[in-house]
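Re: the request from the purification team.
They wanted to know what the chain is likely to look like in 3D before they choose a buffer screen. I agreed to run a prediction and write the result into the notebook, where they can find it.
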Amino acid sequence: MFESLRNAWKVEELRRKIGFTLLMFLIFRIGAHVPVPGINPEVLEKLFEGQLFGIFDVISGGAFRRLSVFAMSITPYINASIIMQLLTIVIPRLEQLSKEGEAGRKVIVQYTRYGTVLLGFIQAIGMAIALGRPMQGMPPAINNPGIGTYLMIAIILTAGTAFLMWLGEMITEKGIGNGISLIIFAGIVSRLPSGAASILQQLSAGVIPITSVIILVVLGLLIIAGVVAVNEGQRRIPVQYAKRVMGRKVYGGQSTHIPLRVNQAGVIPIIFAMSLMLFPVQIARWIDHPWARAVESALGFGTALNSVLYALLIIFFTYFYTAIIFNPMDVADNLKKYGGFVPGLRPGRPTGEYINRVLTRLTLAGAVFLALIAILPNFMITFTKIPTLYFGGTALLIVVGVALETMKQFESYLLMRHYQGFMK
């Protein structure tokens, strides 16, 4: 592995991409420590106690608890992306744009940016107004509540989200890996040391036994092994190409396969579902009304309704995102165009239906696995008796999934230059 890292550093283009990505990470971490002006940090710390906002704080890399300029993280962009992808299915104009290649994709991306700013401003103005009122028997978290202060805070938070969106796009374009996923990855990883220190502090104080820490480590290793196995697992559909004689040369005749991954959607369903589950509870937290308290208690972290809805959303988004990125009929048409066929099946529609049937079963297995991993923290808290366990299966799934995808990009760059890659 160290030899592969040295080889990666020898490639000038790869070295430049790595350096740019690390620089963007540094900017992200600096911004996470720049607080929004006019906030009372002591009141804010008490308001954000609890497991729900502990999870959100992990995703934002600690920016949410400090209410820094990046407090809303990249969540509005994720929500805007979900809305745009849903609208692409129901609005013919957007569906046509999605089929126009790079030009259409740029227009959809631009609409997503506008949606991000709009959703971010709505969320930010709601947070500002809520923080400007007394909550839970405590004074307002904003020092001088007023329309001007609310607008200032909302504009700063929206600008922070827009800047993070741009940062993610720059990483995707000039760095290595998917920028948005890497920003979430960096936020989670930055919180792991403080989480580990908190567990060690509780262990030394006798709050939790050593067996709980051992169970936590074992479960963590099992989750990592399971995530790697499912992410790398695939079903290979054999494909045979017919021989074609052109002049004196014979083309085709070789055998190959179509790799169908068990987890075709990666970590995207987890991120989508998490954003949707956090949004209503976060809004309810800022509203002082009995029905808002009912929503918060029903959908709070660890409740049965929260776990069921979270799992169902993950399964839905796994199928939804897989359907967007992989079209079995297009694969079957391309095979037919180039003289390929699946042994025992007619080219064209029968092949597409067979691939779709296999993909549906594989996706079900991957979706159920993602859902189980996502709700695992509830059981981990029960088994380990660690009440402040904010990062669990979901965080590990995102970290391992993003790390694997980024390593594959490293692999492709190294193999293009005849170096041996990381994955042997």
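For the purification team: The domain at 1-191 is CATH 1.10.3370.10 (Preprotein translocase SecY subunit).
Please add any questions underneath this entry.
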